[in-house]
Amino acid sequence: MQSRRTFLLGALGMTAAMAGCTTGELNIFTAEYGARKDHGYQLPSVPIHQIARKYHRQIVRYKTDEKPGSIIVDTKDKFLYFVMPDGKAMRYGIGIGREGFEWKGTTRVAMKREWPTWTPPAEMIKRQPELAKWRGGQPGGLSNPLGARALYLFNRSGDTGYRLHGSPEWNSIGRAVSSGCVRLINQDIIDLYDRVEIGAKVIVI
Length: 205
Prior knowledge:
This protein is mainly β. The chain has one domain: L,D-transpeptidase catalytic domain-like. Helix content is 14%, strand content 37%. It has four helices and 14 strands.
């Protein structure tokens, strides 16, 4: 994990203009968190009213120099912005890396997977030996930590090991709890997945 942070930190130097600023909610999708079937899985509803309104999926005014289709992850306020035309963005609430697992930098979406297999890295198994049973990969499913979708982040050195992914732990949104990945509510990662193209720029600030 330390080595990943080291080569990602070289991509820093983000300005306030690049990061963007939000100037108001335009449309909120609080009703979009109900149960649904997805590729044979019965995705449960999320008790969205137990999550702060600011973390509900919504279109906001957003000023940035980044092109539409780019993603900006604001780790301070725990928002992910998908940049849209005309000074707008789709904003999602996220969970981020806990203390000691934070990172910043510029990457790109190299792969997209639906109901992905999760393979814990060796350093995670060392910290949590009970995960050794998934050394060969945990199949996709409702209890899989990567949730319904995953976007795989690469930089010039290759796979960063970090993902934008869904999570069955909806109550982790708005908190710093992960091992460095950026997690979204499953209904939100499905929405983001359908918008993002391979090669999309991802800036984590």
